[in-house]
Design a protein that fits this description.
Blueprint: E1 4-9, H1 14-25, E2 30-36, H2 41-51, E3 55-58, H3 61-68, E4 76-79, H4 80-88, E5 95-98, H5 106-114, E6 118-121, H6 124-140, E7 145-147, H7 150-158, E8 167-174, H8 192-196, H9 205-213, H10 215-227, E9 235-239, E10 245-251, E11 256-260, H11 266-274, H12 288-291, H13 306-316, H14 320-336, H15 344-355, H16 364-383
Parallel strand pairs: 1-2, 1-5, 2-3, 3-4, 5-6, 6-7, 8-9
Antiparallel strand pairs: 8-10, 10-11
Helix pairs in contact: 1-11, 4-5, 5-6, 6-10, 6-14, 9-14, 10-13, 14-15, 14-16, 15-16
Length: 384
């Protein structure tokens, strides 16, 4: 049996590391052809030693030169967006896992689509920014997009072989993050360390902050709209602190289907890597008797206004989701670097969205222009 050849964009991030753990558990199933990383050269060097890819890329050209001197000859080292683009279109690769952070994944994702690769998508922001463009290009090139987010992977499985006429609504679960029971007033003084301490998931910094504000769920609403061709009225969010029910689908007869598993990202990652097969995993199993109970509660929009911004971006459409995402990326970075307070993240995004007059996002250039404007405007509001 031939090995499935992989390219992993974001190999040193949380999703990339866990994907390579799966690959290492099943060496007879996969071959890693390419790795794209950011600035963690020490980890990338270890990954190169273990998986021996043909091509690697890092963020900075100077670091690329340093890396060349520390790894075996014969491995091509690239840098920047151009390096990611070359990796995304690597000729022999069958599956490209896009696990980058933020908007940087958009162009490499489109390149992988153009190259007709099967794509495992863990990077939600490109779909938020340009979901309609991505879906149209994927359909044109007969490219399969497999979601890696736990919620969207759950929906993907729940909707399999279901006709769109059967679906009443899709319900995404949210843990509520570390501040589920904290009042808005208390959130002014929280530190980045507190906001990064997610109660059920171990994730990268950006997504952890998004989970604390619930902006992550706002982004996931928009991602789900495009992934599954849903209307705004068919999308709902419910708070579920145990993070065991990952999503639910209500059918037109009132039946509700739920996808359950332990909160372990290796499960949806392995599903995407092995698709259409399913791997036998030796991870700890879900024991509902031990869990005892599953709790659900409605979203408090006063405490989590970011989710309202997601609904508003969906309703406005066009370039508004790209503006919301770009402003949020800048605000989160400012919070992590100590420039703004936690509660200012959503306030800034809301202000920038109110100032934006959305247009139809017919081209990539229009999306990128809106993205650039939102970043510049948010920085102006923060730094003057």
């Amino acid at each position: 049996m031939a090995k499935k050849s992989l390219v992993i964009l974001g190999s040193t991030g949380s999703i990339g590391r866990q994907a390579l753990e799966i690959v290492r558990r099943f060496p007879e199933q996969f071959q890693v052809l390419g790795l794209g990383a950011g600035e963690n050269l020490s980890l990338l060097k270890k990954q190169i030693e273990i998986f021996r890819p043909k091509l690697v890329s890092v963020k900075d050209p100077e670091k690329a030169e340093k890396l060349k001197k520390r790894i075996p000859s014969g491995i091509k080292v690239l840098s920047g967006e151009a390096g990611l683009m070359e990796l995304a279109g690597l000729e022999r690769a069958e599956l490209v896992l896009v696990a980058l952070v933020g908007a940087m994944g958009l162009r490499p994702l489109l390149r992988a689509i153009e190259a007709k690769k099967t794509i495992a998508l863990a990077n939600k922001e490109p779909m938020v920014m340009a979901g309609e463009i991505i879906k149209k290009r994927a359909e044109k090139n007969s490219v399969r997009l497999i979601p890696v987010d736990s919620e969207h992977c759950a929906i993907f499985q729940l909707l399999e072989k279901k006709g769109r006429e059967e679906i009443k609504k899709v319900i995404l679960s949210a843990s509520g993050g570390p501040f589920r029971k904290r009042s808005g007033k208390d959130l002014k003084e929280v530190s980045p360390q507190e906001a990064l301490a997610h109660p059920t998931w171990k994730m990268g910094k950006k997504i952890s902050i998004d989970s604390a504000t619930l902006m992550n769920k706002a982004l996931e609403l928009i991602e789900a709209r495009w992934f599954f061709d849903l209307k705004v009225s068919q999308l709902e969010v419910i708070i579920h602190p145990q993070s065991i029910v990952h999503s639910l689908v209500e059918l037109k007869d009132g039946s509700v289907l739920a996808h359950l598993s332990r909160p372990d990202m290796r499960i949806p990652i392995s599903y995407a890597l092995f698709y259409p097969q399913r791997a036998e995993l030796d991870f700890p199993r879900l024991n509902l008797a031990k869990v005892g109970k599953l709790e659900f509660e409605p979203v408090d929009f006063n405490r989590f206004p970011a989710l309202l911004l997601g609904y508003n971006a969906l309703k406005k459409g066009g370039t508004m989701p790209a503006v919301m995402n770009a402003s949020n990326e800048v605000a989160v970075e400012a919070f992590l670097s100590g420039k703004i307070r936690f509660n200012r993240i959503v306030e800034l995004v809301e202000k920038v969205m109110k100032e934006h007059k959305p247009i139809l996002a017919r081209s990539l250039e229009q999306v990128l222009q809106a993205d650039a404007w939102a970043r510049a405007r948010t920085k102006e509001l923060i730094y003057g």
